[in-house]
Amino acid sequence: MMSHTTNPLEHAELVAGRIVRYAKVAGPENLIAGADCGFAATARMEPDIHLTVAFAKLQALADGARLASQQVW
């Protein structure tokens, strides 16, 4: 649903749109929205994503899932 290795923040509406598209294909009962990996998952041992950005991305994911749920269910 969102990148764990870049700093640009996905907007909740973009996340919701992705969830709705996947729900139409797979069925909403078969979906779990999430980041594809941890926010510190790099070959180097230092995180690329600042903690505040990681939390903002997770907030956008939660908000996007809420918006998508209103459309799908």
Explain briefly what this protein structure is:
The protein is mainly alpha-helical and 73 residues long. Helix content is 51%, strand content 0%. The protein is built from two helices and no strands.
How many separate domains? 1
Number of helices: 2
- What global shape is seen? elongated
Can you give the helix content as a percent range? Answer: 40-55%
What order do the SSEs take from the amino end to the carboxyl end, as H and E? HH
Biggest beta sheet summary: none
Low-confidence stretches: none
Secondary structure layout plus pairing:
Blueprint: H1 12-26, H2 51-72
Helix pairs in contact: 1-2
Structure report:
The chain is elongated. α1 packs across α2 (51-72). It is 51% helix and 0% strand. The chain has 73 residues and is an all-alpha fold. The chain has one domain (12-72). The longest helix has 22 residues, at 51-72. The mean pLDDT is 85. The chain has two helices and no strands.
Keywords:
0% strand; 73 residues; mainly alpha
